[in-house]
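REQUEST ID: PR-0412
SUBMITTED BY: lab tech R.K.
PRIORITY: routine
TASK: structure prediction, single protein chain
INPUT:
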Amino acid sequence: MDKKNKRIAWAITGSGHFLKESIDIINSLNNIDLFLSRAGEEVLKWYGYKLSDFKKKKIKIFKDVTASSAPVSLFYEDIYKVLIVSPATSNTVAQMAYGFSDNLITNIFAQAGKCKVHSIILACDTEPVVITPAPGKMVTVYPREIDLENYELLKKFKNTDVVRNVDELEKIIKKWH
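STATUS: complete
OUTPUT:
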């Protein structure tokens, strides 16, 4: 399949940090398949996003509901030009950095790598202090040293860009869209 006609696989994990910005970017793009972790699906609801709104935009939605993460087989079909995980929680970043693939999001990341589909990860915990929206208010969080180390470890993966903010994410997406 021609790269121009390939789809974007976009995964959302359970973070409110960068969620609005991620949704805004998703809504500006075409040919998106949305992959939701169980926590990602919960967080969308907490922040007032409805899955029906994505469906109206013809976005296919895949949820983390099977033990074998059945939607990973789509990566074998050569239909994706890129995988974007945004926002990516520190838990997801840690699992990806250490090669775990035990849920939908970490499994599609592993399969993207095995199928040579480029991955872009917008990690949430990349700075010693993060000011982020929680439902109804802003909060300050202090990522742990291990969170920052896992972010650095994931940045070493081949065929993977790990970014720390929306500006970096948008710049890299332009190369792929």
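NOTES: The domain at 3-176 is CATH 3.40.50.1950 (Rossmann fold).
REVIEWED BY: pending
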